[in-house]
Design a protein that fits this description.
Number of strands: 13
Number of domains: 2
CATH class of the largest domain: Alpha Beta
Number of helices: 11
Structural class: alpha/beta
CATH architecture of the largest domain: 3-Layer(aba) Sandwich
């Protein structure tokens, strides 16, 4: 008898990777949900044995989904597979009923070992290729899809470093990936940075034909809580603010780029981080770089610290020449075995 498996993840890439990583000698029928609410709707009308659940999703995230499952009379075994590897995130999902957590990406070997350890699967050497997953030939994967997934994994690595350093929980969004004209870039930043003024640190990276700039933008209202968490006792002046900016920038950007580069098999060379704006409006920040940012492939991630008034916006701004190189480098994510 086949096991019924539901994979819930907003990323098409992640759904595909997880499905094709399931044991080929496991009699299983696989279905998909793009967010928690869709998964809950499906679970209300069908019985599933196993739910693979992402955490960072739109509409209803993994935490909200786990909370809602508590009211179900019968629910599947839940395995969380996420790029968010903060210790608090792992403990929270287990406290909420998940039987296991696995970081993204999960290889076929990882999944086989995990499912065996949970007594959800036992190898049948006499049966081959009965995994019910069949790739959808009509499904198209874009550069944005691929870049969003590798950014999501890198985001989780960086957040974990910051969370461990500050002993806090970082609230993570779904990364946004778009090709933006300079005016659209300003609108995106206006939406994310809701304060009247902000400060920003920039750093350049290059490797294997890929060139980009990271821009870390802090709402100026974040400084008091940031200083508190970093145990800064001095009066907050412009010099202390710059030190705080550089400290947090190094912790967030360094691990992010390291995890991003490993997924592309690139060691990026980089410039020194530089303060490019302090206490300015978003429009002034964009104007300062308008000539350079005419049109860019942008990845945007907004980090927030739970229970503190700290918010920072990390953007990766790629050169136009990098787009075709990225498409080639990320093609491994959608290649069939």
């Amino acid at each position: 008898m086949s096991a019924r498996v539901l994979i819930c993840d907003d990323s098409k890439i992640a759904r595909k990777q997880l499905a094709r990583g399931l044991p080929t000698d496991w009699a299983v029928e696989v279905e998909f949900a793009e967010h928690g609410q869709e998964a809950l709707d499906m679970l209300s009308s069908k019985n599933f044995d196993v739910l693979f659940l992402d955490l960072n999703m739109p509409v209803k995230d993994g935490y909200e989904t786990l909370e809602a499952l508590k009211s179900f009379k019968s629910s599947p075994v839940v395995i969380v597979v996420s790029g968010d590897i903060q210790p608090q995130a792992i403990q929270r999902v287990k406290d909420m009923g998940a039987v296991a957590f696995h970081k993204k990406p999960a290889s076929a070997e990882d999944l086989r070992h995990l499912l065996t350890s949970l007594n959800l699967f036992s190898a049948n050497r006499n049966i081959q290729n009965i995994n019910g997953y069949a790739p959808n030939a009509a499904e198209q994967f874009t550069l944005n899809d691929c870049l969003q997934e590798v950014s999501n994994i890198a985001m989780g690595r960086a957040a974990s470093v910051l969370a461990n350093m500050l002993n806090v929980f970082i609230k993570l969004p779904v990364p946004k990936v778009n090709i933006l004209e300079v005016g659209e870039l300003q609108m995106a930043l206006d939406y994310s940075v809701k304060e009247d003024s902000c400060s920003a640190v920039s750093q350049g990276f290059v490797g294997a034909g890929v060139a980009f700039e990271t821009l870390l933008i802090f709402s100026d209202s974040s400084f008091p809580d940031m200083a508190k968490l970093l145990n800064v006792a001095e009066t907050i002046n412009s010099v202390v603010e710059v030190e705080l900016l550089m400290d947090v920038s190094s912790v967030l950007v360094g691990p992010f780029i390291d995890a991003f580069g490993k997924q592309l098999n690139i060691d990026f060379s980089h410039s020194h981080p530089a303060l490019i704006a302090q206490h300015v409006k978003v429009a002034d920040l964009v104007n300062a770089k308008r000539a350079k940012w005419k049109r860019t492939l942008a990845v945007e991630i907004v980090y927030e610290v739970e229970n503190y008034q700290i918010s920072c916006d990390l953007m990766m701004l790629f050169t136009e020449d990098s787009v075709s190189v990225l498409e080639n480098l990320l093609s491994y994510l959608v290649e069939e075995d």
